[in-house]
Amino acid sequence: MVLGPTARMLLPYLNFTIATSALVFQTTVLYPWHHELDTAFQTLKADQLKVLKEFHEIKLERIKELERRLSVLGTPTEASGVEDSQVRSFRCSQGKAQWGS
After folding, report:
1. Per the structure, how many domains does the chain have?
2. Does residue 60 form part of some domain?
3. pTM beyond 0.70, yes or no
């Protein structure tokens, strides 16, 4: 595509105008928006950490409650009068049957 002499003369000015308007847009719109997004991201991150901490505390409370219930029930070997060695041998024989060893 061949440009005429008038277009060749105006092309650098058009290029300068487009580049200048792009720079003005970046500095006046995008840069402040970047700081706003960064602040919102930091807030979101803090909220997420708070939620994860609360979830972790709930899990720990649930585990403690389950441990408390298990301690109240006692171990099955104490209640049934079965010795510990008998339980181990029973578990081993079940493991062999399950895995085909």
Report:
1. 1
2. yes
3. no
